[in-house]
């Protein structure tokens, strides 16, 4: 079998990142949820919330372990699989990479402290304070690493001299045009996803057994947070589209199957392309793309035909865009529905249908993360550094790359399976209600059911 | 001092930091498994897991810090090492992944598993062996660039006495450093049975450590004359290293001041490691990358150093807090909290 090293390099990176991104998202969002739950618990002196924080933290450790090792993998793979890219771009992006490691370091130190000092301090607030550096560290590492990716989309902060980067300004490179919208979108979507997955767990428990107070409180907290961050993610998505229209219009045009530059452009959802590259069976929202791109229904949106064929992204990213936005709207709708139901006295917010929808929103949120990420990455093909270096020039020349792919595939299958098995065992054998009684014997009977 | 000199010094300090904390970690994993198969696990495992649990992720970061920093300060390393190390590097990643995640599965999961324990112990010895390979490669002769294509000469590498002496040194040093640390930790915890056991390990592994150091020294003289002579010029550093080794041995043998003994071991490796590193300069990869020609742009080098100082202001207080909570808190070490 003759494998193309460039294709294999791309596949390895896709696989590693696709796997890592699940745990990275959890690493950014879960600490926030833990911190909120513990804060409420301490403030209200409510053992339910403190137990929530404890149990989430315990599960979180397992996912952190996988996040750390796959993060190490991607860090090393950057140089192993894309040596020529790192040789050139290393001059410009090593600052944020370096800072990301610092943020990660900071987070790792305090996570260890947080996990092993539950009952060591006289004041419970002292322990809660330890959760803040974990939240901040997780957020900061997401911000720094996103600036690297933003740089690859809209490179700035250097001049070209004899085919190499010169006159490098690391700060300008970090705060390139893509940074603000990307950082905003990455953070909000990580928070909404984690809230949604925790809500899904509570909904699942309530579907299986009669709802206990513990799970009801968990659901209320997580769905409320889901709603807040789903709204913010929608705003972030809108900002990203406006950014794309201005700085990376070929990505937006490919995602929207917008071929000819025109005023009052329609937004196209779903459908597929026929042989003449005409969309079929699509939903058309008149003039909405113009509005999405420039906040004006009659503005001009650049079409794909303005770009030479060899630098156009693949057209299938349209489906990624559709799926991501559809899930985003679904999350917003379901969480809003729950909140409305819980406000109206006569309606039961814990009815089976709604619980099923909440349960679905967890895994769907993760899918949206993957789709959105694929959209962003495939949307800048064929470039690795847009306008300067193609993926073909950046990949390794080593003939062993194909073999490495299978090795890593095996690793991720093993890690993914064992992580799931461990998490299931951990919570199955030790239900929340039993643990609550053990730790807080004062809790009135009847709480567990 | 030029910025590239500061850069390489900082990175070398971090690699040294990794060498110490990772050795403690890797060795402890091996001892934990060894104790299990020799049915002494009840003596040791409590001690090891109390120390390891809060710090295991921190260890990994030292390593990530080092390789991200090297590529940042010296981007040419990506071109040479990146291409040549694809296979050994990937294997090291996989070993690290198995080790890190299995530790969590084993310790926080509900069921104890012998297979996890075995893999955790075995990777503890295989990882230092595979990582030390990078040091061997840096001596030159194994990574070759022909017509712009970089490749690694595997046959030459696996038949070379120097590369094997480095692997051997890495493994025995890990076991020695780890045992000295655990001796200190057991003494603090007032854990007599564990202390007797790990002190025996420390004394046992000291002999191969010093033999392996000498062997590696001699093998280097055969492989890279220039580096060897540069190291001879720094003879006093290696003299200090041996001196601290003797102090550590004396303390361990007499069975007192274990904290001081561990610090002596840290100094022993500090001087040997820095003597080795200083002799290696100006090459990062002999003969392709030197620290001056391979360095990044001045503005980036400067920014990295600023980021580094700012980062340290954040990290050092946090690390001190971590140590006070888990390493020097007598009640915690004794298992009362």
UniProtKB/TrEMBL annotation, chain B:
Compartmental location: Cell membrane
Top-rank taxon: Bacteria
Entry keyword annotation includes Lipid biosynthesis: no
Keyword Endoplasmic reticulum part of the UniProt annotation: no
GO cellular component: plasma membrane
TM annotation in the entry: 6-34, 55-74, 80-105, 117-144, 164-189, 201-222, 234-253, 260-279, 299-327
Xref: InterPro entries: Cyt-d_oxidase_su2
Topology of the protein relative to the lipid bilayer: Multi-pass membrane protein
Keywords of the record: Cell membrane, Membrane, Transmembrane, Transmembrane helix
Similarity remark: Belongs to the cytochrome ubiquinol oxidase subunit 2 family.
Name the record gives this protein: Cytochrome D ubiquinol oxidase subunit II
């Amino acid at each position: 079998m003759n494998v193309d090293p460039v294709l294999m390099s791309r596949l390895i990176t896709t696989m590693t990142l696709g796997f890592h991104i699940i745990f990275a998202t959890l690493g950014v969002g879960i600490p926030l949820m833990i911190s909120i739950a513990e804060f409420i618990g301490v403030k209200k002196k409510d053992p339910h919330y403190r137990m929530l924080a404890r149990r989430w933290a315990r599960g979180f450790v397992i996912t952190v372990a996988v996040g750390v090792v796959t993060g190490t993998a991607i860090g090393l793979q950057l140089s192993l699989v894309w040596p020529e890219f790192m040789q050139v771009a290393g001059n410009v992006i090593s600052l944020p990479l370096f800072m990301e490691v610092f943020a990660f370091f900071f987070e790792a130190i305090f996570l260890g402290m947080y996990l092993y000092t539950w009952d060591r301090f006289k004041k419970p607030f002292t322990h809660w304070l330890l959760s803040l550096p974990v939240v901040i560290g997780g957020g900061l590492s997401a911000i720094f690493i996103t600036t690297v990716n933003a740089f690859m989309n809209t490179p700035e902060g250097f001049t070209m001299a004899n085919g190499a980067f010169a006159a490098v300004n690391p700060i300008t490179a970090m705060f390139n045009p893509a940074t603000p919208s990307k950082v905003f979108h990455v953070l909000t979507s990580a928070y909404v996803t984690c809230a949604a997955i925790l809500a899904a767990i509570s909904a699942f428990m309530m579907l299986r057994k009669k709802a206990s107070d513990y799970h009801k409180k968990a659901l209320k907290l997580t769905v409320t947070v889901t709603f807040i961050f789903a709204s913010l993610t929608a705003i972030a998505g809108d900002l990203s589209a406006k950014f794309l229209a201005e700085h990376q219009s070929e990505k937006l045009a490919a995602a929207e199957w917008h071929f000819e530059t025109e005023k009052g452009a329609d937004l196209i959802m779903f459908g597929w392309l026929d042989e003449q590259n005409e969309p079929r069976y699509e939903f058309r929202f008149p003039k909405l793309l113009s509005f999405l791109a420039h906040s004006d229904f009659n503005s001009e949106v650049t079409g794909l035909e303005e770009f030479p064929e060899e630098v156009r992204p693949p057209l299938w990213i349209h489906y990624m865009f559709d799926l991501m936005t559809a899930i985003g709207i679904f999350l917003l709708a379901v969480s809003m529905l729950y909140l409305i139901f819980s406000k109206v006295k006569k309606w039961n917010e814990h009815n089976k249908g709604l619980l099923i929808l909440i349960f679905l929103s967890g895994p769907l949120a993760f899918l949206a993360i993957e789709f959105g990420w694929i959209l962003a990455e495939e949307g800048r093909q064929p470039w690795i550094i847009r306008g300067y270096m193609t993926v073909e020039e950046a990949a390794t020349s080593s003939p062993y790359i194909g073999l490495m792919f299978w090795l890593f595939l095996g690793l991720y299958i093993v890690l993914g399976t064992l992580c799931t098995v461990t998490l299931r065992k951990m919570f199955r054998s030790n239900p929340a209600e039993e643990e609550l009684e053990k730790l807080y014997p004062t809790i009135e009977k009847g709480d567990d059911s | 001092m030029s910025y590239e000199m500061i850069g390489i010094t900082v990175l070398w300090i971090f690699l040294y930091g990794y060498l110490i904390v990772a050795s403690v970690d890797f060795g402890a994993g091996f001892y934990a498994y060894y104790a299990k198969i020799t049915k002494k696990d009840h003596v040791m495992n409590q001690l090891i897991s109390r120390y390891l649990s809060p710090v295991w992720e921190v260890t990994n970061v030292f390593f990530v810090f080092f390789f991200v920093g090297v590529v940042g300060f010296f981007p040419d390393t990506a071109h040479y090492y990146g291409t040549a190390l694809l296979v050994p590097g990937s294997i090291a990643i996989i070993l690290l992944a198995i080790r890190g995640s299995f530790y969590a599965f084993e310790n926080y999961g509900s069921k104890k598993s012998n297979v996890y324990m075995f893999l955790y112990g075995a990777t503890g010895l295989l990882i230092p062996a595979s990582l030390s390979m990078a040091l061997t490669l840096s001596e030159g002769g194994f990574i070759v660039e022909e017509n712009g294509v970089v490749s690694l000469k595997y046959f030459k590498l696996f038949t070379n006495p120097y590369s094997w002496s480095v692997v051997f040194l890495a493994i025995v040093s890990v076991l020695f450093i780890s045992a000295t640390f655990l001796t200190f930790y057991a003494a603090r915890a007032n854990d007599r049975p564990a202390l007797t056991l790990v002190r025996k390990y420390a004394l046992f592994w000291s002999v191969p450590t010093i033999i392996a150091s000498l062997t590696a020294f001699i093998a280097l003289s055969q492989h890279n004359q220039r580096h060897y002579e540069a190291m001879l010029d720094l003879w006093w550093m290696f003299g200090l290293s041996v001196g601290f080794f003797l102090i550590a041995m004396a303390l361990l043998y007499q069975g007192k001041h274990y904290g001081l003994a561990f610090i002596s071991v840290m100094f022993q490796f500090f001087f040997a490691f820095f003597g080795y590193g200083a002799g290696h300069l100006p090459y990062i990869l002999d003969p392709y990358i030197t620290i001056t020609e391979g360095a990044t742009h001045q503005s980036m080098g400067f920014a990295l150093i600023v980021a580094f100082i700012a980062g340290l202001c954040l990290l050092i207080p946090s690390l001190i807090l971590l140590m006070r909570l888990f390493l020097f808190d007598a009640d915690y070490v004794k298992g009362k909290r």
